[in-house]
Structure formats: C-alpha cells, structure tokens
Amino acid sequence: MAKKDYSEDQLIQAPTAEFLQQQLGWTSVFAQEAEDFGPGSLLGRRDDTEAVLTREVLAALERLNPGLPKAAYEQALAQVVQDDLSKSLVAKNEEKYRLLRDGVPVQFKDKAGRRVDKRLQLIDFDEPDNNRYLAVREPWLRGRLHLRRPDVVGFVNGLPLVFIELKRFEAHIDSAYKKNYADYLDTIPHLFHWNALVLISNGHDAQYGAITSTKEHFYRWKRLDEDEPEPAKNQPLLPILLRGMLERRQLLDIVENFILFDASEGAVSKIVARNHQYLGVNRVIERLTSSDPAVKAEVDAGQLGVFWHTQGSGKSYSMVFLTEKIHRKLSAAWSFVVITDRMELDEQIASTYTHCARANSKTDQAHNGAALRAMLREQNRRYVFSLIQKYRERVTEAYSERADIIVISDEAHCTQYGRLALNMRKGLPRAKFLGFTGTPLIEAAEKQLTRQVFGDYVSIYDFQRAVADGATLPLFYENAGEKLKIVDPQLSERIGQHIEAAKQAATLADPWTDEKEDKLYRELARDYPILTSPTRLDKVAADFVQHFHQRWRVVDSGGGKALLVCLDKITCVKMHDLIAAKWAEKTEQLHQAVLADEDLFAAKDKPPTPLLQLRRAQVDWMRATEICVVVSQEQGEVAEFAKWKNFQGEPLDIRPHRDKMVKRELQKEFKKAEHPFRVAIVCAMWLTGFDVKSLATLYLDKPMQGHTLMQAIARVNRVGGGKKHGLIIDYNGMIKSLRRALATPSSTRNALSI
Questions:
Q1: Residues 679, 579: contact at Cβ < 8 Å?
Q2: Residues near 527 by Cβ (< 8 Å), separated by ≥ 6?
Q3: Could you tell me if 529 and 490 are in contact, meaning their C-beta atoms sit under 8 angstroms apart?
Q4: Rounded CA gap, 409 and 429, in Å?
Q5: pLDDT class of 442 with cuts at 50, 70, 90
Q6: What is the DSSP letter of 718?
Q7: What is the per-residue DSSP string for 225-236?
Q8: Residue 342: predicted pLDDT
Q9: What whole-number distance in Å separates Cα of residue 749 and Cα of residue 513?
Q10: Do the bridges between strand 335-340 and strand 383-387 make them parallel or antiparallel, or are there none, so unpaired?
C-alpha cells in the first residue's frame, strides 16, 4: 500500500517527524518502504525481529568509551540485546534501565594483562550532542507470532527509548492506547525492553506514560515553565509535549533523573515524573545551584524555599526525584534529613524511598537527637527519616556542622512544626531547609514563621491546576448536616477555633499530640452535647447507610471505599455499632425483597431479569462489606471505653476492634480495591499520608479547619480506582471552612464544586 494512502502519516506522523527533526534536532527516516536489511542497510538491522539497532549501539559504545579492547564492546553489546525469557516485561525494563543509567559492566584485560572492571556508557547524559537521536517512522517489527508496524520509534544511540502512537484528528486518543499500544505490548514486547516513554496523540490531545501505566495514569505535558498559564482549549498539546519531553537535553534529564520503579503495591510499577514534578524539582535545583548573589545568600542562610504541591499530586515521588538528582548530578556527599510531624507520614515517605530501592526505612530512621548526630557525623548517611517531635529537647551542641545537609520538612506549615523546625535549625546550623507542603500557607503568623525557617515559595502547584491537569480528581461536596437539620451553623466554627487555639498554645516541652486532640474534642463534646447525642448519631448513621449502600457501583471494582471521620475514638466505636446494626437491617430488607421476586420468577419457571440479578448482586456486596474502626492505642483504653454505652445501652468494647488492628494488615486490605473491607471509621488516623486510589467517598462528622480539613478532603482526590471524582458528605456544615481553606490563592476556590 502506498505511503500516500495513509492519512495518519500525511496528517499526523509526517508533521510529528518533521517537528522532531526541524525543531528538536532529531534525524528522521521513513522505514516502511525504504528499509532493507543487512550491515549497510538503512537501520543496520539483520532482520525485522531486531528492536535494538546494534550498529548504532556499537558505534556509541566505541565513541563514548574509547580505547578499549574489541572484546569489551562485544561483551557490552551482548548484554544490551540479551533477553531473559524467565523475566516479566517490567523486570526486563528495569534491568535495562539500570544499564542505561549506570552503564554496562564489563571485564577485560588491559595491555599489561591486568583484569579491569568497568562500566561502559550507553548514553552521554552530560553532553546531549554526543548522542545520536533517530526517529524511525513505521518500522516493521516481528514478534513470536505477529508482524506489527509502530507509528514512530525514537532511538537514542540505537536504543528504542521512545514509542509514539498517533491517530487521526477525529479519533479519540484512547484508541491509540487500547487498539494499538496495548496490542504491541502483547505481540512485540521486545520493543519495550528499553522503553522510557510511551506517547500517544491524535494531533490535538497528547499524553504520555510508562509501560506499566494504565490509561487513567497517562498524563499531559502542558507547560514548559511553571508560570505559564493553562493552554487554550483549542491549542494542540502535541507540540508542547514533544518540546517538553523530547527536546534532547530534557529527554536525557527525564530518562536519567525522573524515572523510578516502585514495588509498594506488590507488583512493580514504573513511574515517570509528571509535568509539575519535573518543573518543580528543577526549580529547587536551580535555586540550590544559583549564582545570583541574593538567591545564594538566602540558600547559604539555609532557606531553600517552600515546595507547595497540592495534596494528591505526588509529593513523595517529587522528594525522591529531587534527592536522587542532587546525588547524581551535584554530589553523592549530600545527606538528606526527611522530617515529618505524623507517624503515618513518616512511614509513608520512608516506605516510598524503600520500595523505590533508594533507602531502608528500618535502618535509616533516627529516633532522637543523639541518633541523628551519629548518623550525620560518623556514618554520613545519604538519608535519615524522623519525626520532628523527637527534637524538642534544648539544643546545646549542634548535631552536625556540615553544609552539605538538606532538611526536607513535610507539611512544614504547621505552627507547632515551625517551632520545632526552629529547634532543628539550631541543631543543624549550616543545613539547607526545604519545606514540602500539600496545603497553602493560610495564616499571617505561619507565613512569617515558615518564611523565617524555609524562605518563600520555590514551586507552586495548586488545587485548581492539579484538577485541570488530571493529576488529582475534582471534588464534589454535599451538606448532609443541613439536610438532616442537625447543624448549628456556628458550632463547627467555634470548636475548630478552640482546637486551633489549643494547637498554637503547645510548646516544645508540652507538644500537641493526637491523644490530646482526642481528649479535647471529648471535653468540647460535653460542652456541645448536640454532636454526640444519641438522636444525632442515629440520624448520621441512618443517612450513612442509606447513602453508601447506593454507591456500590460507583466504581467497577465494587463500590469504592468510604472513610467516616468522627469526633473522637469513643464516637468511632459508637458509630460502628450503630452503622453495623443499620447495615445488617438494610441488607436483610433488600434480601427479602429480592427473594420474593426471585420466588415469583421461579414459580413461573422463568429466569431472573438482568435488573433482578443486579439487585441480588447488590445484596451480596452488602453482605460481604466489612466495617472497621481504626484508631490509635492508648493506655487504659479498655476501661475508658467501657465507661461509655452504645445505642443498646451496652458498654463500649474496644477489644474486638483492637484485635483486628493488631492481627490484620488493615492498611493493605483497605488499599486493595477488591477487598471487602470497604468502610473505615476514624478520628485522626489515615487523614494524612494515606493514599487509597479506590477511596471515593469521605463522610465528615468532625469539626475541622484549615490544613487539617484540606488534608482530610484530599483523601478522595487520588486518580485511580476507576472513580471519576471524589465525594464529600459533610454532617457539620463546614462549607465556610472549605471555602476559606481553598481560597489561598483565591483561584483555587473553583476546584471544589459546592
């Protein structure tokens, strides 16, 4: 078939290749009709089974690693083309990536006969012009059973790092993923052994991902600089993506420094940085290395800046990208002290580094100032993880005087956190301090304190931009408390202000804790009995059951998960007993109705209709659903809970709930979309540093303000799990607090539908 017959080639492929060649400095060839085979052929391939251009690879090995014996180059080439059939595609890709980034290990004898161990460069990451960039259009590639012709394959020094699938303008971009790319993964998998980027486009829309990315985790590259506005709706995104990702220096930067392999979900996932992560991380590095006298003075004073990327936009990965790039491109001598103020956050971040094989959460955690001193002075650790509360002792001697230490403080905006961070400054007087936060700095006092410790914003990625980019999901809000007529319009405001005042009154000697917060809520509940009255809790429980049982098909995996946030631990157990009873009652009611209809059909010897089968499936789903309480432990809790009564007048019993929390891995179970543990009842745990993609509904029955409220609502904005948005059901009427929290800057207000 002639080239002119292919409208995709004429309208999309040819202009894309032309853009790569004329704008980005690639060489472009059209292989479909022009390619023959053999050493002197267009691509130098032996036949159409070869996905690696061995002629190009060998030339690069010799060019970048001159003066070695021929056997060394041949040994390296053998590893490049090796295909271990026992390994999965992602395992092969990870193995090849390490060769790409770190070099191919070879052994040979020098002229004196001594054995030499050396790693040979496949790509020169420091000098882009030392590499060859070849865009090949429509090369034939034969798999074990099938012959396929990808649209465009981008080779760097003969390695197929970039796969591009293009569709006509009128075709939906999803078809490039589902009809072509997914098929190629199955039929010509060896094309993806070296793949770094998968690009799909219909000429207007353009997205990218990694070989393990599901379609919902393909993202757009919308801007070349963080300060650029949102592209116009009619503006083609393909040129922006190509310029942002395939410009030669940026491509090498992404490949070298912005790819991770994460095993935290069990199976390994390949992670490629999103647009905002790439731009934000590079902004921090630019500030760290700036020669501008004013910037340099601030950095020398320890102020590396505040990195505000909204909740759910991948801050933990951004940390890993940042620290690893500094180690690789600036100096391996840098040490990073990663500080948080909540155990869940500490575990999440340390776990991310561990599962990405960059640190070890078991050995890299400092439990006090003495341990931190030893790890930084004597052991020169690359990474140290710790809780800021462990550094409340008065600092009389610096932990370390080193200047090559960066302290990364996660959720650095908190007032108490700021005080303790100042204490940390005394312990590390020459360190650089970088604040990571998922919420904006709201109050004037915290702005001043944060600026004193960290400096001004170095990178901003707000709520509205994250939703527009698809990095997080939009949130929808329902004021259920108003509907149930159980809201005192000023009650939540008063309680929230009381809690915030108590937090600000905390001192280094007497810090704020979850236990103190829980007890204070309980004391306030006595002053405001409406929040814990049996009548009110019964209304909330009834509404919860009525609402959540109808959300069983909100996502394909079985309804999605729900988080119910209660006032305190006592209320959590009270609500569990109420909801469990009402859930069982509702399940039985629906079962009896379905059973009656099933009997009617059976009596007439007719099969049940699809609708009746669906109703039976809902009953089965409800029967399988498990509701668990997740609260922190405290001494004497059995006796304390027993002082209170549930709706049946029985003493509350924490023991069956604690038994589940101790003996089971509830976190892992809740994160699995298919697991029947679908409802978690909490008061403080799992509200920060806990990401569940299938969490679709958040039920709030606890007065909150500011950062606490922002962190809570962000639990349901994660992309994935089959959901299209997150839903917030509010029983306290906190709409004013939501608007205030989202109004910094004011443009973010529109990101929440209320």
A1: yes
A2: none
A3: no
A4: 15
A5: low
A6: B
A7: STTSPPPPTTS-
A8: 73
A9: 30
A10: parallel
In this prediction, residue 748 carries a pLDDT of 38
DSSP letter string over 445-504?
HHHHHHHHHH-SEEEEE-HHHHHHHTSB--EEEEEHHHHHT---TTHHHHHHHHHHHHHH
What would the two tokens of residue 612 be? 């009746």
For residues 141 and 149, the answer to whether their CB atoms sit within 8 Å is yes
Distance of CA 242 to the CA centre of its chain: 24
Q: Which residues contact 203 (CB under 8 A, 6 or more apart)?
A: 11, 12, 15, 166, 167, 168, 169, 236, 238
Token code pair at residue 533: 């009255």
Give the residue-averaged pLDDT of 153-168.
96
What are the Cα distances from residue 515, in Å, to 224, 543, 553, 579? 46, 29, 37, 25
Please give the Cα distance from 384 to 549 (Å, whole number).
45
Which residues on adjacent β-strands are paired with residue 700?
A: 565, 730
Residue linked to tokens 């319009």: 489
495 neighbors 487 (Cβ within 8 angstroms): no
Task: Tell me how far apart the 2 most distant CA atoms of the chain are, in Å.
Answer: 94
Token pair 């904006």 is found at 440
Instruction: Identify the sign of the CA torsion 737, 739, 741, 743.
Output: negative
Q: Residue 727 burial by CB count (10 A; 0-12/13-18/19+): exposed, middle or buried?
A: buried
Among 286, 386, 370, residue whose Cα is nearest residue 335: 386
Q: Within 13 Å and on the Cβ side, how many CA atoms surround 145?
A: 4
Cα(353)–Cα(47) distance, integer angstroms: 42
Q: Give the β-pairing of 626-629 and 432-437.
A: unpaired
User: How many residues in total does the chain contain?
Assistant: 754
Contact 240, 221 (CB under 8 A): yes
Distance between CA atoms of 716 and 695, rounded to whole angstroms? Answer: 6
Give dist(CA 355, CA 342) in Å, integer: 20
> Is residue 201 classed as helix, strand or coil in its secondary structure?
strand
Q: What are the structure tokens assigned to 109, written together?
A: 């004898």
Residue type, 69: P
CA angle 78, 73, 117 (to 5 degrees): 95
Report yes or no: 622 and 586 within 8 Å, Cβ to Cβ. Answer: yes
Query: Exposed (0-12), middle (13-18) or buried (19+): which is 686, by Cβ within 10 Å?
Result: buried
Give, as one character, the DSSP assignment of residue 10: I
Beta bridge partners of 166: 201
The candidate with the shortest Cα–Cα distance to 706, out of 486, 437, 485, is: 437
pLDDT digits (tens, 9 = 90+) for 705-726: 777 787 888 888 888 777 888 8
Task: List beta partners, residue 384.
Answer: 337
Using the predicted structure, report yes or no on whether residue 414 has a pLDDT greater than 80.
no
Rounded CA gap, 428 and 422, in Å?
Answer: 10
Supply 232's token pair: 């116009």
